[in-house]
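User: I'm preparing a small set of examples for a lab meeting where we compare how different chains pack in three dimensions. I only have the primary sequence for this one, and I'd like the structure in token form so I can line it up with the others. Please keep the answer compact; I'll paste it straight into my notes.
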Amino acid sequence: QVQVVESGGGLVQAGESLKLSCAASGSIFSINAMGWYRQAPGKVRELVASDTSGRTTNYADSVKGRFTISRDNSKNTVYLEMNSLKPEDTAVYFCNVLLRTSYSGPSYSYWGQGTQVTVSS
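Assistant: Understood. Below is the structure token output for the 121-residue chain.
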């Protein structure tokens, strides 16, 4: 059993900052990748940022230079530091973790329940 729990969302004004956290726990052998996605009302879920094995990071063009993803492997935790927030960043933010539960087993994808980020103008 694996649990993925996000925290840190909230209501802020444009230009302010927020930091999201996501912790994975349970039967984890290794984590391949951790990432953040978001979904605004009426829109499809989109990738915001990802970190693969702590070596490769990717960002959506819309957040480059404003958002930073980081990981604490000792805690199986990924963070998303969001600066200079804009109203268009308003969405539910979901954490995704790609992991293995055993040495020889396949990788599985797990999602958190989501955390609301609202940016007022």
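A couple of notes for your slides: The chain has a mean pLDDT of 96. The two ends are 41 Å apart (CA to CA).

User: Perfect, thanks.
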